[in-house]
Amino acid sequence: MVHDRGKIKWTSLMLPEHVEMLQQMGREIGVEKAPILDEQQLEELEQKVRQIQIGTTKALIVYSSGNKVNRASGIVTGLKPAEQYLLLDTANRLYPVRIPFNRLIDISFH
């Protein structure tokens, strides 16, 4: 005989809307959301972008994509100031990753 009084007891009393809300909350747990950068952090980030030497700089770039925070490591192969993005050549992708400047959160050099 199973003595589980937790989940089994309450599932018949829950409305479908509540079940859906709980599932949504479960999906959001562990998802890192992009921080809002202040003016000083944006200036530091701009200085780091200016330090990049195309083709030789190895960098770990933290950027936002939608509501998630992504990390990519590789060699910066291009800077396009007019189009507002940079290209990062990673080991696990065939083509360089195109990262818009307004999505950058942090850059660290190896």
Instruction: State the end-to-end CA separation.
Output: 58 Å
Q: Percentage of helical residues? A: 25-40%
Q: Main sheet? A: 5 strands, antiparallel
The ordered string of helix (H) and strand (E) elements is HHHEEEEE
**Mean pLDDT across every amino acid position:** 84
The CATH architecture of the domain at 39-109 can be given as Roll
Judging from the principal axes of the Cα atoms, what is the shape?
Answer: elongated
Radius of gyration: 21 Å
List the strand order in the largest sheet. Answer: 4-3-2-1-5
Taking pLDDT < 50 over at least 5 consecutive residues as the criterion, the unreliable ranges are none
Give the number of helices.
3
The level-1 CATH class of the domain at 39-109: Mainly Beta
Number of strands: 5
Structural class: alpha+beta
Query: Which percent range describes the beta-strand content?
Result: 25-35%
CATH structural fold name of the domain at 39-109? SH3 type barrels
Give an overview of the whole structure.
The protein is of the alpha+beta class. The chain has a domain at 39-109: Roll (SH3 type barrels), CATH 2.30.30.520. The protein has three helices and five strands, in the order H-H-H-E-E-E-E-E. The protein has helices at residues 7-11, 16-28, 39-51; strands at 58-65, 68-80, 85-89, 97-100, 104-109. It has a five-stranded antiparallel beta sheet. A hairpin with a 7-residue loop joins strand 3 and strand 4. The longest helix has 13 residues, at 16-28. The protein is elongated and about 65 Å long. The N and C termini lie far apart (58 Å). The model has no long low-confidence stretch (mean pLDDT 84).
